From TrEMBL:
One Pfam family cited in the UniProt record for this chain: PepX_N
Keywords annotated in UniProt: Aminopeptidase, Hydrolase, Protease, Serine protease
GO molecular function: aminopeptidase activity; dipeptidyl-peptidase activity; serine-type peptidase activity
Domain X-Prolyl dipeptidyl aminopeptidase PepX N-terminal: from-to ranges: 1-154
This protein's name: Xaa-Pro dipeptidyl-peptidase
EC number of this enzyme: 3.4.14.11
Species assigned in the record: Lacticaseibacillus pantheris DSM 15945 = JCM 12539 = NBRC 106106
Gene Ontology BP terms: proteolysis
Catalytic activity: Hydrolyzes Xaa-Pro-|- bonds to release unblocked, N-terminal dipeptides from substrates including Ala-Pro-|-p-nitroanilide and (sequentially) Tyr-Pro-|-Phe-Pro-|-Gly-Pro-|-Ile
InterPro entries: AB_hydrolase_fold, Galactose-bd-like_sf, Pept_S15_Xpro, PepX_N_dom, PepX_N_dom_sf, Xaa-Pro-like_dom, Xaa-Pro_dipept_C
Domain of life: Bacteria
Length: 796
């Protein structure tokens, strides 16, 4: 176990005393022993009264022979450091003899990454500093000790207002007194063509103290799934992977026009206002869906959820990432900032403002939710002060297509933009409402199906307007991105290309990035990292103006190692800068060319494989797909190396057919107990989000219980007719050489000594591409091909 803590900031003694005093902690008593007794009494907030406190103390050991109650009963001029930290570790949730040796508590603390003062305590100021540091130290249950004590009632006597400790907001807000309400925001859209502005439902969850004049910031999650999904319809609409790869006409697809970005619509009248109120008319009965939002609700941040245009309770139609969905999210932010109107009912005329909001908004969420956060940020809307997006799409082409191919998101073979539109069109679940726009929805869906163009897979204007990276120059707010390095659903290319786009336009935006070893998951309850605490430092600065230097205090890039469990490293950038060098791999062989016949679909059917089993089998040294691939050894590692960044594969290939799928996989070969890509539960319901509030499971990425022989590092796919990018197709004459460039998914991969790095070149990918029945023979000119890979040379 290692508990990393990047969210703790340094404070001088005067600040420490001031912050402790505001919480009711003593900083000066008659004697050191008196100070210790008064302080440790506050460490037992669940104990009401002296007798209960002494009983609690008696359950904690100072050493192998003495309990805390007995030890505190004796006056002393010096507190031995090991006595203090034996007790401290127990308050942090660790057990003597199980987790640590009471003869050497600091040895365990050093191994676990816990901070300590390496000296005996011989005066009250040193004791105050030791206590302040301890309260800001992480417990085994993810949170810091001050948060753990707050969950037991330590802060219940404080006023219900923002209280900051070590630069972060404390859980001083009563989660038993929450206001849940629904309003409808008037948009500029008319996506259902009824001549009226689309009204957008939003659910607000805010502290009741806001009714007494306390203004709070808002965490807004644009969640298209908030009101449910249409699973049966999705199953029926999911595409069967096509058996034929179409031959294309040569040419370059045009970029989106202004009309694509801003479709013409009639001038829309504003709704008449006949009354105003501060009281909503509808109770918000939908629960929150993100525990990080719930964590911050206890700390005074309101939560706002809106499913957006075309969902149950709102007007309009879905478009899967189109400009209207961006405008839908922006409208909510503008209302929170007082710059847009809302009403107490969907069709009524009583207006309501976000009078309780201080005008500062952050967006949160994973996947489609985080995607809309990126989209809204590219609008430059002033009230959006920061974004915390996780596993988010920055270009929908990179989600559903790749270099001229239809490529499904991992785990969802056959899904496409039209399928996702169907899935999120929850307006359909209110049949009386849906019937009124049935014909318009069917027309919209037909348009999406045609425009997405599954026949060719090219980068068309449909995808161009869904590429948010075009507008990164308009982003005004600092950004946090979280992504799994094993996320083959929303692939890592999305976050890295966003980061590179910000660099390209010379943006002054600070972009903090977290890369974990998981798949398509949240990060806030991973035990080894203080993600929630870091975000508390970040949001306290961005939304509440706390001068905690969060931008400089937090690392720019935090990356979880793939070899050692619970290990995180930090870098100043990802895949660039000092310490990163490129290495070129030639495909050394005595043979100038190599070929394979792409019989992947036939083998897949004969083996009765699934997408998952194909992904396992294609990378094995001994595989039923061996004849349908090239196996190109690159490196036998004689020492540990770290790949970091985006690899580029240059291939000269020819096919005996006018088209073909070319896929590449970078693989780690060698038997090992690698980390599982799905985090395991360390403890159930032990991570407290506030006092008598919600609890979350604690998770960690653990080694597999059985060794495996191969691990996918990265991959890429391309249509032979699109040798460079998705927008330009060329004519392929059978038997003629084509020079291709394939961009691998970005990665950070620690390859240990003794393992082998291998490149696999093959054809169709049964898990992600279509499944052609044709069996072209692919020949690779090995002498004219190579792989460029970036390596980090300054990382332990």
């Amino acid at each position: 176990m290692h508990l990393y803590q990047f969210g703790r900031i340094k404070a001088d003694l005067a600040t420490q005393k001031n912050e402790l005093t505001q919480l009711g902690f003593p900083t000066k008593e008659r004697t050191l022993s008196d100070l210790a007794r008064a302080t440790f009494a506050l460490f037992e907030p669940q104990a009401h009264g002296d007798a209960a406190t002494r009983e609690a103390w008696a359950n904690r050991a100072v050493d192998d022979d003495t309990d805390l109650a007995t030890w505190l009963a004796t006056d002393r001029d010096v507190i031995k450091r090991d006595n203090f930290y034996n007790v401290a570790l127990q308050y942090l949730g660790f057990q003597p003899r199980v987790d640590f040796d009471q003869q050497h508590p600091r040895t365990f603390m050093k191994q676990t990454g816990l901070p300590y003062q390496d000296a005996d305590i011989n005066n009250q100021d040193k004791f105050v500093s030791a206590v302040y540091l301890l309260l800001n130290t992480r417990t085994v249950n993810v949170v810091t000790l001050i948060d753990a004590l707050a969950a037991k009632g330590l802060l219940n006597t404080l006023p219900e207002r923002f209280t900051f400790f070590n630069g972060k907001s404390l859980p001083t807000f009563d989660t038993h007194q929450i206001i849940r309400e629904v309003v409808w925001i008037e948009s500029d859209l008319d996506t259902d063509g009824d001549g009226q502005r689309d009204m957008l439902e939003a659910t607000i969850i805010r502290p009741r103290v806001t009714d007494k004049g306390v203004q709070v910031p808002a965490l807004f999650t644009a969640n298209p799934y908030f009101h449910g999904t249409n699973d049966q319809d999705v199953e029926a609409a999911t595409h069967v992977p096509e058996p034929t790869l179409q031959v294309k006409a040569a040419g370059t697809q045009p970029a989106a026009t202004d009309a694509d970005w801003h479709p013409e619509q009639d001038q829309l009248p504003h709704r008449e206002v006949t009354d105003t109120t501060k009281t909503a008319s509808v109770f918000g009965d939908e629960p929150g869906i993100y525990s990080l939002n719930d964590y911050f609700l206890a700390r005074g941040f309101a939560t706002v959820y809106s499913a957006g245009v075309g969902t149950r309770g709102s007007d309009g139609l879905r478009s899967t990432g189109g400009p209207d969905e961006t405008a839908s999210a922006v409208a909510i932010i503008e209302w929170l900032d007082g710059n847009r109107r809302a009403f107490t009912t969907r069709t009524g005329h009583t207006a309501i403002t976000a009078w309780w909001c201080n005008g500062n908004v952050a967006m949160t969420g994973k996947s489609y939710l985080g995607t809309l956060a990126i989209a809204a940020a590219t609008s430059g809307v002033p009230a959006l002060k920061t974004v915390i997006s996780e596993a988010a799409i920055s270009s929908w082409y990179d989600y559903y297509r790749e270099q001229g191919l239809v490529v499904a998101p991992g785990g969802f073979q056959g899904e496409d933009a039209d399928v996702l539109a169907i899935d999120t069109y929850s307006r359909q679940q209110a049949p009386g409402d849906a019937n009124r726009v049935k014909a318009k929805w069917e027309s919209r869906l037909k348009d999406i199906s045609q425009a997405q163009d599954r026949q060719h897979g090219d980068y068309t204007p449909f995808w161009d307007v869904r590429n948010y990276r075009h507008n990164v120059a308009q982003i005004q707010c600092d950004f946090v991105s979280v992504h799994g390095l094993n996320d083959w659903n929303v692939k890592p290319r999305n976050v890295v290309k966003l980061h590179e786009a910000l660099r390209t336009v010379g943006s002054s935006v600070h972009h903090k990035m977290f890369f974990h070893q998981g798949q398509h998951v949240y990060l806030n309850n991973i035990q080894s990292l203080d993600f929630a605490d870091q975000m508390n430092l970040w949001l306290s600065n961005k939304l509440l103006g706390v001068d905690n230097d969060a931008v400089n205090a937090l690392p720019d890039v935090e990356i979880q190692d793939n070899v050692e469990a619970a290990k995180w490293v930090t870098t100043p950038d990802f895949g660039h800068g000092t310490g990163v060098t490129n290495r070129q791999f030639q495909f050394g062989t005595d043979e100038p060319t190599a070929e394979f016949k792409d019989e992947s679909t036939a083998i897949f059917n004969a083996e009765h494989d699934t997408s998952d089993s194909f992904e396992r089998q294609i990378i094995q040294p001994d595989s039923p797909y061996s004849a349908a691939r090239l196996w190109l050894p690159l490196l036998q590692a004689d020492q540990d190396v770290v790949i970091e960044g985006t690899g580029t594969l240059h291939l000269r290939v020819r096919s005996d057919a006018p088209t073909a799928i070319i896929s590449a996989r970078l693989v780690d070969i060698g038997s090992a107990f690698r980390l599982q890509p799905t985090a395991s539960i360390v403890a159930r319901g032990n991570y407290p989000l506030g006092f008598d509030w919600q609890y979350e499971n604690t998770l960690e990425f653990a080694p597999q219980k059985q060794p495996n022989a191969a691990q996918l590092i990265s991959f890429s796919h391309a249509n032979l007719q699109n040798p460079v990018d998705g927008a330009t197709a060329v004519t392929v004459n059978p038997g003629e050489w084509v020079d291709m460039q394939l961009t691998l998914q970005p990665t950070r991969y620690h390859l240990p000594a003794g393992r082998q790095l291998v490149l696999i070149v093959h054809g169709a990918d049964m898990a992600q591409t279509i499944r052609p029945t044709a069996t072209p023979t692919i020949t690779v000119d090995l002498k004219a091909s190579h792989l460029d890979l970036p390596f980090r040379n300054d990382q332990d």
